[in-house]
Design a protein that fits this description.
This protein is of the alpha+beta class. It is built from 13 helices and ten strands. Among the domains are: 91 residues, Immunoglobulin-like (Sandwich); 70 residues, no CATH class. Strands 1, 4, 7 and 8 form a four-stranded mixed beta sheet that branches. The chain has a four-stranded antiparallel beta sheet with strand order 3-2-5-6, with no helix packed on it. A two-stranded antiparallel ribbon has the order 9-10.
Length: 372
């Protein structure tokens, strides 16, 4: 026998056998999705697991495990086709199950766990049913409260948008609705106060700001910035109502509530009192000077209080026999300090003009006509 032929024949047969082997394909899989709600109809989180054991036991090992999020939604992919039992677990304990769940290749199966169904609640113990009713009552209160909060937030945003457009009447109407529906929220009263101030209803605004402060102080976690802002705006409302003493006390309280921003609150106090002084209320100048000094003490780097201080003092300037303007002590220094801190500030030109009229040399880089 020709051995060479035999070898060639065997080699060819091996090649033919190799070509005849079936090609391996990845198994097509299916997927699953659904929603889980408890007997009270509230979405719950947990885990959904799949098994082919019927019925599942404590010894069952689950091949597939899919998390359920806080909204009660879950989904899973890569599931081998077949018939499964889907089990919902909460805190590691079996709560509900679905029998005969069919997973088909390339298809997505829906499997909702609805524990409000009669067959589920019928198997609950009397104690469980009692707990369910109590839970429903609490949930109803929570849902109603959440609805109020949502509505209040909508009205709050409407009011803020309206105030940006200077439509204070619309803003006030929205916040009156909000405070009526949820009267225990300080921020709503604060915003109502802002709207009322915009309407120039300062006495009403005073009431609203005080309400905001009282509610915030009584809350479990009072917010210092809300207190400070409320006292600050209260001070402005009191000043606009002509209540100088009350306004000063409010600004003091703002600075105390938020010490890191005391310079800003005292500056606000000084500015509003100075403006009132310019409008004919002579007593307001005294309050403005005191507030400016407090602002400077709290934050010596803030320029505006120096400008206000200079403006108040210049009100007492005199003219000598030669016609020269004589400013009170400290007046020129205040303007000079303003220019030192804000050589290109909004009031730089005014400060320079006053110093020039006083015959003072300007100790800053400000130049008349320079772009502000």
């Amino acid at each position: 026998m020709n051995k060479g032929w035999m070898i060639r024949t065997l080699t060819m047969a091996a090649a033919l056998m190799t070509c005849a082997l079936p090609q391996a394909y990845a198994q097509a899989t299916g997927s699953i999705h659904g929603h889980v709600q408890n007997p009270a109809g509230i979405s719950v989180s947990g885990d959904v697991k799949l098994t082919t054991d019927t019925p599942p036991t404590d010894a069952t090992k689950y091949k597939y495990d899919f998390p359920v999020d806080e909204s009660g939604m879950y989904k899973g992919t890569g599931i081998a086709p077949g018939t499964y039992v889907a089990v919902f677990f909460k805190d590691g304990k079996t709560v509900d199950f679905i029998n005969g769940l069919k997973i088909v290749a390339n298809q997505d199966a829906a499997a909702d766990f609805d524990m409000t169904r009669a067959e589920f609640t019928a198997n609950m113990t009397d104690e469980q049913k009692k707990e369910l009713e109590e839970y429903k009552q609490k949930a109803a209160v929570t849902i109603a409260e959440n609805s109020k909060i949502s509505n209040a937030n909508t009205l709050l945003q409407q009011a803020r948008d309206a105030m940006k457009a200077k439509d204070f009447d619309t803003a006030a109407t929205a916040m009156l609705q909000a405070t009526g529906a949820k009267p225990d929220e300080g921020i709503l009263w604060f915003t109502l106060g802002d709207a009322q101030s915009g309407q120039k209803k300062y006495d009403d605004a005073v009431v609203s700001y005080n309400k905001a402060i009282a509610l915030n102080d009584a809350s479990k976690k009072p917010k210092a910035d809300l207190d400070a802002a409320s006292y600050n705006n209260l001070g402005q409302a009191e000043a606009n109502s002509g209540h100088i003493t009350e306004a000063a006390a409010a600004y003091e309280a703002a600075a105390k509530a938020e010490p890191a921003q005391a310079g800003m609150y005292y500056n606000n106090e000084a500015a509003i009192f100075f403006n009132k002084g310019q409008n004919g209320d002579g007593t307001a100048f005294t309050a403005a000077l005191a507030a400016a000094d407090k602002a400077i003490a709290a934050d010596p780097t803030r320029p505006d209080p120096y400008f206000i201080r200079g403006n108040v003092l210049i009100q007492s300037a005199t003219v000598d026999k030669t016609g020269k303007v004589i400013a009170p002590p400290g007046c020129a220094d205040a303007y000079q300090k303003y220019l030192e801190l804000a050589p290109d500030g909004a009031h730089a030109a005014d400060a320079t003009a006053v110093l020039t009229s006083l015959g003072e040399t300007i100790h800053s880089s400000f130049k008349a006509g320079k772009k502000q």
